[in-house]
Specification:
Oligomer: heterodimer
Number of strands of chain A: 12
Largest sheet of chain B: 2 strands, antiparallel
Helix content of chain A: 40-55%
Largest interface: A-B, 80 and 85 residues
Strand order of the largest sheet of chain A: 7-8-9-4-10-11-12
Radius of gyration of chain B: 23 Å
Largest sheet of chain A: 7 strands, mixed
Strand content of chain B: under 5%
Number of strands of chain B: 2
């Protein structure tokens, strides 16, 4: 609760709302003891006095009545009516919602149908009908406003109750022989009450406004009694000649509604955990670059990631997702990057084209060179021209990575159209050809499918087709087969392998599966806690892993026909990258770790092409 | 698609019946003698006898409902005693004016609201976002009737840019430019709150969508950022924006009552308020049923639009 209040008041706007609302509430509460004139005392000699005249702080209205006094009494009345209406609506609506949600079945069905009917009305029509039947008057306006808001509470509270009614403690109460009334009152109500109160606090401002509105129309409070709405309504006829009589009550309504809105927003934000973590921020078009230190010199590789550092800045915490990674590929080569979830391999891959979500991602060091040109910090347009055209991505989970509302053919054609001029018919033909290239049957009809109409394997092929659309030089495949079953996975791997051989494509293949690496990759790099711990030709690394981590990662892979062998899971978890231990990050989980492992930074060492980041490797390399 | 529209139209029948039942029940709440209450100051003995005969008030409640319903289905909404003309004629004429006002406001709030939300999301925490957020906060906090009055003071009285009130100039008006001049202030005042609500929702819907994987895919393809925002992201965000447009249409229609009073607009809202004050209950009853029915039909149109936009909805 204190954490909630702290959060609420850190929000300056919400705090402002709270202050204004509290001030109004205090003023309204002490109104009877303030030295004010009688709000209904007319003084025709003092008609339409301007504000700040002697004796009248806010001036007088068309009957010479003191506006300050009328304003405070009117506010009092408006607030009281709004709160009472909210209480009535909440009580009746919640009762209906609880009954519908608790009993369910036909009772629920009939009640909710009725509620739906009420909600089919624009709210004011219902209110006007009720006032028409009962006759104008503040009480009747209050009844109308309360009635109009009953469906809102009924529907919300029903939703909560349905969820609760299936829970164990309700079943337990039933088995204990408690009656329905008692279960509802002692078991359900206490759990629903907080929701009712929150719903009420968010609607009370609304109800104050609605009753004021009805009074403004002349259907609410009747003279001489005045709430804010009827003050404004009466002042309307003198709007042009004496605007202050309208402005005074109008601003009061505005202040009340705004402060309740501000406070309500603050409460909602403080309760919404997503906002708390700052996750609801929009990723920029390219990853933010704040590079410090030297920029490595160019090499003759096709794509070279050089000493790359990518971090996530969340509040005051810094997560070092990628801590100085260097990788390179030549044309026609396939490099595997392997590691557990959270080892930084995907972030490394996304950093290449500036696709790390930012905020919170920041590239803080190193370089990514495509044909010698540094992409980190390159202007947006130059990066965009290469995205998908020279360097293309294949992502994991194609259901979420394809746009759900565009046909796959459109999405394929768009990949080309973003870089080359392409007519409509031609785009479709190219899309069909691409689907054929990735061996999708009935490509001519599939091209008009939406992603949700395809199977997982087929969607993944669409993802590959999209990466191939512009015949790129490099494809970065981020776990493209993880979501697929084994046979489909094998097909897709052989498809990628063929393409690489046919087109001289360089592939960076990210996975956590050594089996896949063995099948496809020439070289492999093993990542742990944001750094490369071992690298070398795939066969050599698989046959003689040097880093204890690599060895145990390979030991985790079950072998077909390998007999009953205990699979050695690695105990412990990878370290959190906002709190990396000094020295070897794997030391806490390593059975060979010694004191010196924790002492300081360990370099990546070995004779080319192999390298390992370990003081006591399993094999000398 | 045709089948889907038909299905939605059929599903509207019980809702429309429900609306007539609810209005009928509310009207039967009238305390005292209904005939006198309905006629109000027009209650002469022969009028009372006539309305008792017309409405069959001597008959039981259920029977009375069906008489009223079958009369309405033949287009007979009864007769307004204060205006001495058929209710349906008056309602249709007034509804036309309301439709012009509320329709303009609805288009304004949809376009401005979505645009503001998109800009706000695309420039999150930037100057444009903060400025829009501030204006939106003011917009949703000012009661529309007060906003309308302040606009009259500023733009009609002080600056003399626009006419104070009415739908057409009394002398020499009546053409489209005249209507537009009269429409500017009321439609803006009416659209203000809904614009704010839609802008807020669009902003959060856009932020939600912009974090999705398919946006990253679009960027990875090299799609230009402008198209990522206005195409990929907005298209997906519309799925959650459109239902809110339907709800806001109801609020715009409701707010029209206040705006019609403030700007002396000859619409159905002002007619209803006048009818309540003169106790012309048949006019109220007919007007409420008619407008509510129109709103139900509008919401079906919204559903159909949603079906067109989102192929995942089975149509």
């Amino acid at each position: 609760m204190t954490a909630f209040l702290k959060l609420l008041f850190r929000n300056r706007l919400a705090a402002m709302g709270a202050v204004v609302l509290t001030a109004i509430l205090i003023l309204v509460l002490i109104t009877p003891v303030l030295p004010l004139q009688n709000p209904d005392a007319t003084a025709t000699a003092d008609r339409f006095k301007r504000p700040f005249t002697e004796g009248y702080l806010l001036g007088t209205d068309h009957l010479g009545r003191d506006l300050a006094s009328r304003l405070l009494h009117g506010t009092r009345l408006s607030l009281a009516v709004g709160v009472v209406a909210a209480l009535i609506a909440a009580t009746i609506g919640s009762a209906i919602g609880i009954v519908a949600g608790y009993f369910g079945g036909r009772t629920d069905n009939i009640i909710m149908r009725g509620v739906d009917m009420l909600m089919a009305f624009p709210y004011i029509l219902l209110a006007l009908a009720i006032v028409a039947a009962l006759g104008p008057g503040l009480m009747n306006a209050l009844i109308a406003v309360a009635a109009v808001n009953v469906p809102f509470f009924a529907r919300n509270i029903r939703g909560i109750t349905v969820g609760l009614a299936g829970r164990e403690f309700i079943d337990a109460a039933r088995l204990a022989g408690m009656g329905h009334t008692r279960i509802i009152l002692t078991e359900l109500l206490p759990n629903v009450l907080p929701v009712i109160i929150i719903a009420m606090s968010t609607t009370v401002g609304w109800m104050i406004l609605e009753t004021a509105g009805l009074s403004f129309l002349g259907l609410g409070s009747q003279p001489p009694q005045a709430d804010l709405g009827s003050m404004l309504g009466e002042a309307r006829s003198a709007l042009i000649s004496h605007p202050h009589t309208s402005i005074v009550p109008g601003i009061m309504i505005f202040l009340i509604v705004m402060s309740i809105n501000l406070l309500g927003d603050g409460v909602r934000d403080a309760l919404d955990p997503r906002l708390r973590s700052g996750a609801l921020s929009r990723p920029r078009a390219t990853t933010l670059v704040e590079r410090a230190g030297d920029i490595p010199a160019a090499t003759d590789d096709l794509l070279a990631i050089q000493n790359l550092e990518t971090q996530f800045h969340v509040g005051k915490r810094i997560y070092r997702a990628v801590g100085g990674v260097s990788l390179a590929v030549k044309p026609g080569e396939c490099l595997g990057v392997i590691g557990e979830s959270g080892s930084g391999k995907s972030v490394t891959a996304l950093s290449v084209m500036g696709l790390v979500a930012s905020p919170p991602g920041v590239i803080t060091g190193g370089a990514v060179r495509f044909q010698g040109e540094d992409l980190i910090g390159a202007p947006y347009e130059s990066l965009r021209r290469k995205r998908g055209d020279r360097v293309a991505y294949i992502f994991q989970d194609p259901l979420s990575t394809l746009h759900p509302l565009y046909r796959v053919g459109e999405q394929l054609a768009e990949a080309i159209r973003s870089h080359h001029k392409l007519g409509k018919a031609e785009g479709r033909a190219r899309a069909v050809q691409l689907l054929k290239d990735v061996r999708i049957p009935n490509a001519e009809s599939r091209v008009d499918d939406y992603p949700h109409e395809m199977s997982g394997g087929m969607r993944q092929r669409v993802g590959i087709a999209m990466a191939l659309a512009n015949e790129p030089d490099v494809i970065i495949a981020d776990e493209p087969t993880t979501a697929l079953d084994v046979t489909v996975q094998a097909q897709i791997l052989s498809l990628l392998d063929d393409l690489r051989r046919e087109r001289g494509l360089a592939i960076i293949f990210i996975t956590h599966d050594f089996g896949v690496v063995a099948q496809l990759c020439d070289r492999v790099a093993v990542m742990y806690a944001g750094r490369i711990v071992e690298g070398g030709p795939t066969r050599a690394v698989l046959d003689a892993p040097a880093h204890p981590y690599t060895r145990r990662l390979i030991a985790c892979v079950p072998e077909l026909g390998g007999g009953r062998r205990a699979l050695a899971a690695i105990p412990g978890l990878p370290p959190a990258v906002d709190d990396l231990p000094s020295g070897c990050a794997f030391a806490p989980r390593c059975d060979k770790a010694r004191e010196s492992c924790r002492a300081g930074d360990i370099p990546l060492a070995g004779t080319h092409p192999r390298a390992v980041r370990c003081l006591y490797p399993e094999e000398a390399v | 698609m045709g089948g889907y529209i038909l299905k939605r139209l059929i599903s509207a029948i019980p809702v429309l019946l429900g609306i007539t039942i609810i209005v009928f029940l509310i009207m039967s709440l009238i305390p005292g003698d209904p005939a006198t209450a309905i006629l109000g100051s027009y209650a002469t003995p022969e009028n009372v006898a006539k309305i008792n005969r017309d409405l069959g008030l001597d008959k039981p409640l259920v029977q009375r409902y069906f008489i009223w319903l079958s009369n309405m289905l033949t287009g007979d909404f009864g007769r307004s005693y204060s205006l001495n003309r058929p209710v349906i004629d008056e309602v249709l004429e007034r509804f036309n004016a309301t439709l012009i006002l509320a329709g303009t406001a609805f288009v304004l709030c949809s376009v401005l609201g979505i645009l503001a939300g998109v800009v706000s999301a695309a420039r999150q925490y930037g100057f444009a976002d903060k400025a829009i957020t501030f204006v939106v906060l003011i917009g949703i906090s000012v009661p529309s009737f007060f906003l309308g009055m302040m606009m009259i003071l500023l733009f009609a009285v002080n600056m003399r840019w626009l006419p104070v009130s009415g739908m057409f100039a009394i002398y020499g008006g009546g053409d489209l430019p005249d209507l537009i001049r009269h429409l500017i202030m009321p439609s803006l005042a009416l659209a203000a709150v809904a614009t704010g609500v839609i802008a807020r929702l669009s902003r959060s819907a856009m932020l939600e969508v912009l974090r999705q994987d398919f946006i990253r895919t679009a960027r990875a393809k090299g799609v230009h950022e402008r198209r990522v925002i206005m195409g990929h992201a907005l298209r997906a965000a519309m799925v959650s924006i459109i239902p809110v447009l339907g709800i806001q249409a109801g609020f715009v229609l409701s707010g029209a009552v206040y705006i019609e009073i403030v700007f002396q607009w000859p619409g159905v809202g002002r007619m209803l308020v006048d009818a309540i004050l003169t106790r012309d209950l048949l006019l109220v009853q007919g007007g409420v049923v008619f407008v509510a029915a129109c709103y139900v039909m509008f919401n079906i149109a919204v559903d159909v639009a949603q079906g067109l936009l989102d192929p995942r909805i089975k149509t």
